[in-house]
Amino acid sequence: MAPKTPFRRRTRASPLRSPPADAKAYRYDATVCEECHSGDDDDELLLCDKCDRGFHTFCLRPILACVPKGLWFCPLCAADKKPKQFPLIQTKIVDFFRIQWSLEPDDLGSRKRKKRSGGLAVAKKKRKLLPFNPSEDPGRRLEQMASLATALTATGAVFSNELTYRPGMAPRLANCACYEKGGMQVLSKEDTETLNLCKKMMENGECPPLMVVYDPLEGFTVEADRFIRDLTIVTEYVGDVDYLKNREHDDGDSMMTLLSANDPSKSLVICPDQLSNIARFINGINNHTRDGKKKQNLKCVRFSMNGESRVLLIANRDITKGERLYYDYNGSEQEYPTEHFV
Predict the structure, then answer these.
(1) What one-character-per-residue DSSP string does 168-186 give?
(2) Total H helices, total E strands in the chain
(3) How far apart are CA 186 and CA 173, in angstroms?
């Protein structure tokens, strides 16, 4: 993940409103966190815009990775609303994900599964990446896609399964893997074909066997909806591509490093706040504790593909059905604060 500088808004250390004439009625120094009852870590102590109670970002459940922009309301003042479920209607889901193939029981998936089944043992022996194995039941796939559509709708994002290059951000020509500091591993021809197969399956309505659920402690999180083998491509990390220098003061908590260049002005990040897929909702481990590290079952790897950098989330061990997915947000950078992660 790309390191970020929190945008200070409504913290005890940086009040946005002027205190009233009666200073005793408005003492920021007296503000403490309602959860841990400490006034330390001023920069992380959020003040509710309605009641002025204080809460550390890391004491909230789910935690906030950084201080949010704009108005913020504490759990007591905010309406207790669960995300509204996306309607489980095939035509709506087909339209939401722009699916190009009907979700019938004996569709493209059954034929592709037969074609792939003979190559899995060979792929594992050669340590090649594996395509995800969609659920056979088309009704279950609808439920999986509806869960993702619910999360995307609740966060105000639109589904996309590709890196996007918008005017005013980094152009596609800027995504040149040769700029990577120390070089970047090249995705092999076989693995490129596997990734393209995963993309094609998604276009045809065969989604990864994943379910997005809402947890009061972790927020949106992703669970395996069937067994996933080691080295399976779970998803690609996608979104708008921009220069890191343009996002150094961005409060987005989901930015991903795309290119770490020798020349910092050429470094790129993926910003999934407006266009994204299921990768945005896969949570990170607390890499400061042994139990946190044990939860990791995905690895985040950047590859050079046709000269461009791409980010893949890949299973780094067998994953059982019902297991939640986690990866290390830091990788080798060790700059993303994870010590307060659940």
Answers:
(1) TS--GGG--GGGBTT--PB
(2) 6, 15
(3) 18
